[in-house]
Design brief:
Alpha-Beta Plaits, eleven-stranded mixed beta sheet, disordered N terminus, homodimer, about 35% helix, Rossmann fold, about 450 residues, alpha/beta, five-stranded parallel beta sheet
Chain lengths: ~450, ~450
């Protein structure tokens, strides 16, 4: 007889049977023996709840009791943990707070809710001694929260940088490989189910910002500062820039970036040029990857599927297994929500975007005349910015015009803005200046 | 006042101040505030021990008491945990068992000791309720043991495949980039400190086998089967094969591979062809990476430095932080040594190498005559093996000869051995057949 069977089960109430909820239900059933071996006790779904009762019946085949009222499920006495897979920051928040009040533990994949209300929710949970697992909220099945909170806990983390939205990475990969425009690829992605009917949160970078805000708080032991993140999506990105970047040895990726700097932390999401010889550049399609730089460990990278029913369920159930082991232990034995106890947080200011340090990619349409290049490079040099690479694309921009593309060495964004203003005032410059940031991973 | 300061320190006895021991000592000192925030208590080195007293004095500058007798250190009453960084499976084993007997917890980087004696040591530690952390034993600072034991615990793991020896990966990278022979690069690696004076354990694959044996036991919930691992190193690898592989779109890596199969598990270390478009192929120099395929999570990969003072210290201290949090908790609250409780282990047999399934690379010297290629491909096809790619290299092998290189689709190794025996018997075949395995990561 295995030890697993001598322990009472961890009793789960599963709220929300959408893609991830259904995946979690299936995974707990399919791998129940393996899961019990690793959790040292069985994990049992005691009740499920979803507004679509037809879907519930189809999924559970009558094997699991249905609780029509999710709020009642969240506070039932015969449940140890509420798995919140409803999503959004409306009803899910009410439900979560009620469950915490009732002393229930929580496992969730809800990045939007935590990014906006983590400080309130974790504060509440802390006062009630409640566990909150949210591995599934960032990068799907990749155990990146565990890596940051525990595996790399000895490090002073310097940066966390990731492809943490599969939809946009799929779109960027297709734009590059097929030379298509954003809107064409988005339509294809929607047809294939890689993008939602309303893709705003993904393509505008909001989803990635939710996730990098959580990783930032864990990496630096601060509160969650989603409201101060700088966010740019990929909707305005031109396939021309993807192609020029490629000619210069770069791929364009939508990155979430957070860094520790002397004056505070950087927290931003934007399309970014990545040198083609770093691993991050080879992360294609809907895959995710997170790069972490620590003072002791150096460069590390974590790669896998960032979304989908089963990868996300893998993370949900991993949290349940952690909880199963710690069910009878004191709350102090658990890893603090954001890696450090609330009382040990150090609040570092989020730096304004103008203060960040980065390499930059500039594209300008100019008149095809003698002396133009010299004018441009002189202005850039006069602004104290050093140029790393330079190409000119004859014919780009139209008749009698040419396009000039520069990549700079790292400088402060404020400097680039000044330089761009000066360049735009040159009579030979005939277009707006396209500006993208560059991340070297060095 | 932070919560950290209200808890008593975790008291460490540090045995062995070589590269990793010195790194651990330094890291605990340098990041002590960050570490205390994350451990919720200070971590203090109470005493150190090393046979080189001059080195001890230089490192500790008199700040930490020295215990001249490591065995006395291991059983001191004022120590919670012994960090064993002596290495080897002689004295280190005696010390570890004595420390466990005395009720001390253990953190170690000693893969050789655990690969050979894990079953005895973990059994002993289990009976005494003692923690053993060994994250540092595999892949340095990459938290791969935590990922497998906890982060992916919901999965039925299908395979674990890794570049887990930095010395050999450095040598293979140099051989490919510079076209040099193994012996030339080894000498350079020794000069640069990437290879030890006696490099046998690294270049013969033994170190990688220690590590993959530990990962295999965790992945599949079995005992550690190092004694049954199939081990081939890189000493006989020709730069010609590296070059041919590259022409065919592959890189050669020394991989540790373990897979779950219907009849048991595969457990092996050998030079392996990897398609150049998978991430593993781009892991260069002394870096490590581990690929894990799980039934729910799909493909994941973990990348970082696999050796060196600070990366390894990062893993040692992460284990200390885990222990610090769980110090007052019951042993059941901890993750079992190999991911599942001893009573829940399932012993799966290790398959003989002849029974493994793999793609294969074959290189043959043949007479440069009409009909030779047809003969060879017919023999291979008659053996039930299907050919994926094929090149012929005129001039390879000498006057009037040519070299033929085949890559097969996956088949059972026994089939390849039969086919090779038949090929070698052909009068037109004038050399031994070089055989390498191929891993597609699909």
């Amino acid at each position: 007889m295995s030890e697993a069977s001598t322990q009472r089960p961890l009793r789960v109430g599963l709220a929300g049977l959408g893609t991830v909820g259904a995946g979690t239900y299936e995974l707990l059933l399919r791998n129940r023996n393996e899961i019990a071996r690793r959790a040292s006790r069985p994990i049992e779904v005691v009740a499920v709840s979803d507004k679509d009762l037809g879907r519930v019946a189809e999924l559970t085949k009558g094997l699991t009791p249905v609780e029509p009222d999710a709020m009642a499920l969240a506070t039932r006495n015969d449940i140890d943990v509420v798995v919140e897979l409803i999503g959004g920051d409306g009803f899910a928040k009410t439900l979560m707070l009620a469950a915490i009040d009732a002393g229930r533990h929580i496992v969730t994949a809800n990045k939007a809710l935590l990014a906006k209300h983590a400080n309130e929710i974790f504060g509440h949970a802390h006062s009630r001694g409640t566990f909150i697992g949210f591995e599934a909220a960032v990068a799907g099945g990749i155990p990146i929260i565990k890596a940051l909170r525990e595996g790399l806990a000895a490090n002073r983390i310097q940066s966390v940088t990731g492809i943490i939205n599969g939809t946009t990475n799929f779109i960027l990969t297709e734009m590059r490989e097929k030379g298509l425009a954003f809107s064409e690829v988005l339509a294809e992605a929607q047809r294939l189910g890689y993008a939602e009917a309303d893709p705003t949160f993904d393509v505008e970078g909001v989803d990635a910002a939710h996730k990098i805000s959580l990783l930032s708080a864990i990496a630096f032991g601060t509160a969650v500062h989603f409201d101060q993140a700088h966010i740019e999506g990929i909707t305005k990105l031109s396939s021309r820039d993807i192609s020029y970047a490629e000619q210069m040895g770069y791929r364009i990726k939508l990155l979430g970036i957070t860094k520790r700097k002397p004056g505070g932390i950087e927290l931003r999401v934007h399309p970014t040029l990545v040198p083609e010889d770093v691993l991050m550049a080879s992360v294609e399609g809907a895959m995710n990857a997170v790069h972490v730089l620590g003072d002791a460990v150096g460069h590390t990278l974590y790669y896998g599927k960032g979304a989908g029913a089963m990868p996300t369920a893998s993370a949900v159930v991993a949290d349940l297994i952690d909880l199963a082991r710690l069910l009878e232990a004191a709350p102090e034995a658990r890893v603090p929500y954001l890696g450090v106890a609330a009382s040990a947080k150090q609040d570092l200011p989020v730096l304004p975007i103008a203060e960040i340090e980065s390499g930059f990619y500039l594209r300008l349409g100019v008149k095809d005349e003698p002396g133009v290049l010299a004018d441009i490079t002189r202005r850039v040099a006069d602004s104290g910015i050093s140029i790393d690479a330079f190409i000119q694309h004859p014919g780009g921009g139209g008749e009698g015009q040419t396009e000039v593309i520069l990549i700079t060495h790292p400088c402060i964004e404020r400097q680039i803005r000044l330089a761009v203003a000066q360049l735009s005032a040159l009579p030979s410059v005939v277009s707006d200046c396209t500006v993208l940031r560059v991340e070297s991973f060095q």
